[in-house]
Amino acid sequence: MAEHLSAQRRIVLVTGPSGAGRSTAIHVLEDLGYEAIDNLPMGMLERLMEGPEPARPMALGIDARNRDFSTTGFVELIAKLGRMARVNLSTMYLDCSDEVLLRRFSETRRRHPVATDASPQSGVRTEKELLEPIREIADTLIDTTSMNVHQLREEVDRWFAPKNGRHLAVSIESFSYKRGLPLGLDMVFDCRFLANPYWRPELRNADGRNPDVATYVQADMNYGPFFERVIDLLLTLLPAFQAEGKTHLSVAFGCTGGQHRSVATAEAVAKALAEKGQQVAIRHREMERRSLNVRPD
Prior knowledge:
single chain; 297 residues; alpha/beta; Rossmann fold; 2 domains; five-stranded parallel sheet; four-stranded parallel sheet; 10 helices; 9 strands; 41% helix; disordered N terminus
């Protein structure tokens, strides 16, 4: 196996019996900034390591469902990676009691992936026996028997979050109410009460990213109190959301056409949050879809 990883490249192997929370743990690691690959065939791992050096730490999900999985092969893989001086390897094993695993399969009415033609009890037993040697050498063992999803997220955070901390990612979006609300929003603010630059001929064909449009919108006597309260609200809520394990917050500002008021406000809010040290991304939906025909805002 070629050793192309930089000094102490972080790699986390994630495994455990089906239903114990392996997929959830992979998603948590991805939210923490890991490059996550789930259900990776073991035969492809060596080629992956021989490819270009990854820019981020890696979380690799490997379980007994993989077509080339073998207990011996997995144990040898752990040993091989562990001998690489420039790899900081962890093996996370998600475990759970037989009783809870059976209940989870009963609730979802899924067949057990290891024993599709047998009873769930047989599948749970077979898979645990298969994985037991890996469980014995795993350096991080998380028992999810009495955990819910939020508690599992907190536990993975505790073990694998960067020591220097991280920010909750904030997505700021502008949109037109004519086209409906964007999907997946956490918070929405209506900007249609603000003075509309569309009715100024010299501003009509510009958008809220234009300084003259932004100045016009911000001159509305209602803008200042609205903007200050939005910023205060977000700065109050962001630490609380982060403490609850949320990794992304989507906030949108809407107006009639999604061209002037919502864009100017979204830009100002994104800038203010970034200046406070928040991780912010911004998108203007209607600007991305805008045709040559300018619609009233």
